[in-house]
């Protein structure tokens, strides 16, 4: 008898079957028969409602007390998304957004996630937390078919910002990731962030930016193809992916997703913590007209932040953090400073900052006039 699992995997295509079978064997759940159950019954619990990027759910910057179990529920959503004026993808998403929502806890807390794969989906999914220890970051314990759900709990032992992503095995891993299935976790020190001298610092706003590279196939006329579901485009998309040249590099799921009416907001004098995550490729964030006052380039808060960066580096498969106090009003452009990817492929966002201009920091001494007039 053909099982539902076999039927769904078979729909992806015979070409991927050997890879999937090998991956399933290598990435099976570990033997836990001798493990002692974790005792968290005495800990308080708190439920957090996830919100879509670039925003982040309510949280405290300094832990209000001892460790807690912080509960989240997240649905996997397979849906078509428009990523540019002329391009659509059959996206695989955590909670319907690209990137998936950020989850925030404190060091020593337990993050407990209920991961649900609705019966309307076609594919198997899971979640690999780079912040977690063991079992492929939880990926070996969270594989859910359509119509299934699971609960994973892990202890937040390392403060910092970390990527999470789907990793069901073999060629499915890059396909799911570049189809939108990644997000970020922030584990704050219990006493909050500190600067290079160990002095506590706070942020007034948090901007969560997820960078994604897409690989959209074209037809014989050069137009981007559009597919009725994720499975239908698998073979064509793999051909483009294996060329390693993305057709789009975007912030938060689409070209222009953080510009115009959707631009990020701030005021002069406010400190903004920018979290930048990239699950697949290296990136080079740069804030045009501003700087990284404090930069945790590798995203780990046990390390003292660097200061005064113009451009910082996000390794593929990681997240970084930068704190900046805006000192002038106006529109600041935030880019991946591979300017080809920023301008031509879409990796651009805007911060619109309100306040009073400071001529001591910058002044137009003479407006443009006729050549040779002065």
Automatic annotation (TrEMBL):
It comes from the Bacteria. Cu cation binds at residues 125, 130, 165-166, 176, 181, 337. GO terms for molecular function: copper ion binding; nitrite reductase (NO-forming) activity. Residues 1-23 form the signal peptide. One of its GO terms (biological process) is denitrification pathway. It is found in: Periplasm. It catalyses: nitric oxide + Fe(III)-[cytochrome c] + H2O = Fe(II)-[cytochrome c] + nitrite + 2 H(+). Pathway: Nitrogen metabolism; nitrate reduction (denitrification); dinitrogen from nitrate: step 2/4. The keyword Glycoprotein does not apply. The keyword Metal-binding applies. Homotrimer. This is Copper-containing nitrite reductase. It comes from Histidinibacterium aquaticum. The lineage of its organism: Bacteria, Pseudomonadati, Pseudomonadota, Alphaproteobacteria, Rhodobacterales.
